[in-house]
Design brief:
The chain is α/β, with parallel strands linked by helices. The protein is built from 15 helices and eleven strands. It is globular. InterPro entries: Aldolase_TIM (IPR013785), NMO (IPR004136).
């Protein structure tokens, strides 16, 4: 069994955290990841409500027919929040703490105003960082560990590749470091562990699993996609009026909507119908207009295995590779 700071601190069987993907990683996926030996996280987007959070926290801590694991696994889950969003309204943040998660992710902004409250609630604070400057901000805030999230990752991210960023963060960090971005198999997990990371945050590799909250049409598109079909764009945020800070775009699978609008964002911001089109496509699973965020690991999605199996297989394969080569 792989042993790292992450597995020892959180009593995990695999050094893997499920990425907190807004609108995709709800309670069922979080529960399944934890059942596979990692730590599952609920992705609480800017539109999430306290009622939604409570419902998904209950799912994360209660076994169902789709997830099997040790009896105590269900007590452990995490929640991911966008710091810029809770800066505007901390209602959701307070609701998260009431559910007593093991880890709270405070990313995309300065976590300092919230770290003490998370610690007082008995949870660890994780922050994704996209530059060395982000690392300094997180360390100064007193977070417990950081995730070097490269632009290979799906969803909102920075512009530095995972491996160059990870090397810089590992060289400069005084706290434990995990890696995220393009890690979709045991080979990827072995690579970042060999570099010195304490584990990996995995998102795209779990999107094909039945526990992910994703319409069938979008799941089918994921299986057909190759890594080179992902693009870094602000088109979907612009269309829906989501107030993401400009420095963070999102990596998504290329489609007709991006073709039409990616070079016309000023015009898109004033289009009264584009946001409704994207929302409808997201609900219906129409890949031509939906914002299907996925990272460059999408080309390694080969089946719709349960998330617990994906996590366990990654850890087993990484252990075999590390044992063979070191």
């Amino acid at each position: 069994m792989l042993s790292t700071w992450l597995t020892r601190t959180l009593n995990l069987r695999a050094p893997i955290i499920g990425a907190p993907m807004a609108n995709r990683s709800g309670g069922r996926l979080a529960r399944a990841v934890t059942s596979g030996g990692g730590l599952g996280m609920i992705g609480a987007g800017s539109a999430a409500t306290p009622a939604w959070l409570r419902e998904n926290a209950a799912r994360a801590s209660t076994p169902d027919d789709a997830t099997q694991g040790d009896a105590g696994d269900g007590e452990r889950f995490g929640v991911g929040l966008m710091t810029w969003s809770i800066d505007r309204d901390r209602t959701l943040f307070d609701a998260v703490l009431a559910e007593r998660p093991a880890v709270v992710s405070l990313s995309f902004g300065d976590p300092a105003p919230y770290v003490d409250d998370v610690h007082d609630a008995g949870a660890l604070v994780m922050s994704q960082v996209n530059t060395p400057a982000d690392l300094r901000l997180a360390e100064d805030a007193g977070v417990d560990f950081v995730v070097a999230q490269g632009t290979d990752a799906g969803g909102h991210t920075g512009v530095i590749g995972t491996l160059p960023l990870l090397q810089q963060v590992l060289d400069r960090a005084s706290i434990p470091v995990l890696a995220a971005g393009g890690i979709a198999t045991g080979r990827g997990l072995a690579a970042v562990l060999a570099a010195g990371a304490e584990g990996a945050v995995v998102g795209t590799a779990l999107l094909g699993s039945p526990e992910a909250d994703i319409p069938d049409g979008l799941r089918e598109r994921l299986f057909a996609a190759e890594a080179e079909e992902t693009v870094y764009t602000r088109a979907f945020d612009t269309a829906m009026g989501t107030p993401w800070p400009h420095r963070w775009g999102g990596r998504a699978i290329h489609n007709r909507f991006i073709d039409e609008w990616d070079g016309r964002l000023d015009e898109l911001a004033h289009d009264g119908h584009a946001g409704d089109l994207v929302r409808a496509a997201n609900r219906a699973g129409n890949p031509d207009a939906a914002g299907l965020y996925a990272g460059q690991g999408v080309g390694m999605l080969s089946d719709g295995a349960p998330a617990a199996d994906v996590v366990a297989r990654m850890a087993t394969d990484a252990e075999a590779l590390l044992g063979r080569r070191f």
